[in-house]
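Support reply, case 0932

Customer input (verbatim):
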Amino acid sequence: MLDRKRFDALARYARELHAREWVANHDGNLSLRDDDGRFVATPTAYSKRLIEVDDLLVVDRSGKVLRGRHRIFGEWQLHRAVYDARPDARAVLHAHPVTASGFALAGVALAPVATAEIAVSLGDQIPLVPFAMPGSEALERTVAAAAERFDVLLLERNGVLALGDDLEQAFLRLELVEHYARQLLVARQLGGPAPLASDQLTTLQQARTKAGLGPEARGLPKR
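Our regenerated output:
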């Protein structure tokens, strides 16, 4: 059962997204999965700056509100797609950090993977999920397919979706993606980043698996 500490954490991370300027107005959303098939999530049409525990919702897989005084956000199907694709995912954060979202708006991938930290922490690529209309089955399918292999997704013309074992891991992945986007932007101004060699990337992927990171390390099917 979802306990008070997890509600407190979700409200705190929602406010942190706003403090980092990774969300504005009513955008961005956060959720946690419980063992009994329920989820706790932030509500729609509510600034993350103002989120308190009493504002959070408990919903089922379909997004039906089981507890709470607000409505679920319209992009719930993206969270559901991640949870369905990744049984190991316990938390999902969706935000719009400016630099990474700038890449998404331009339809430019966060590539190449040029640092060991990105390769081990996030994998051999950060996929750019093609644009599809919000709420569409096409978007849900493409997000699910990407989430089967990766822990962070760049959503074209949208922002970033990060999953994790808990809120802290998902948050750190989101933070790392934004930091890497800033590095890439500077590197491109200086002539472009040099990608890791294939043998280096292979070695780092082995280290990633050994550290228990990524779907394959969790015993999930290789796609």
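We compared this against your earlier run and they match. Two observations from our side: The domain at 4-217 is CATH 3.40.225.10 (L-fuculose-1-phosphate Aldolase). The chain has one domain: 4-217. Please reopen the case if you see a mismatch on your end.
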